[in-house]
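PROTEIN–LIGAND DATA SHEET

This sheet pairs a single protein chain with one bound small molecule, fe (ii) ion, given as SMILES. Inputs appear in the order they were entered. The predicted three-dimensional arrangement of chain and ligand is reported afterwards as a token string under its own label.
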Amino acid sequence: MIPTIQQAEAWLQEGKKMTPGLWDDHCRYVGQAARAIAERVSGMDPDKAQVLGMLHDIGRRFSGKGNLHIIDGYHFMMEQGCPEVARICLTHSFPYQDVNYCFGPWDVLPERDGEEEKERVSQLLKEITYDEYDRLIQLCDALATGEGFCLLEKRWIDLIMRYGPNEYMIPRWKATYEIKDSFEKKMGISIYELLPGVKENTFA
Ligand SMILES: [Fe+2]
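PREDICTION REPORTED AS:
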């Protein structure tokens, strides 16, 4: 089942009370971008795209920390009876489909074994064959901060500043460029022409 936009919004608002931050606004921007792209790609469902974007980081409601949001979001959405959203909670962080190709720490809460959680994500990720919606949210996640849309490269620099560089960056970036090129070809327009405020958010 795909939840409604209203339900997704209710979960975001509830989640923000549990774990404050800008993450819920980031989710709304990802949802907006996903909708704008899906509206221009034949066969895609804009409502579904928006909801998947809005809920991709819903796991942040539980701790907001590191990569645990990936598995927390997955479990939360499975419990709600929404496996299609649950898979997005998993896949959004892996444009390159390998659990190691992800920024951010796994060991963030003393009461949880980060290695075990990572292994669980790894197993689940291997069972998935990416579809257009997985790709769409991976791209949109890289295009939005909590303040709006921006250049992919700006987001990437932010991540490196936060977590430091690693050997997984370049394959991950290449995978994201491939997704961008593929959607731009289907739309016949640059993502930067499509999304409002890129210039302001990137260079402000
Ligand atoms: Fe995100």
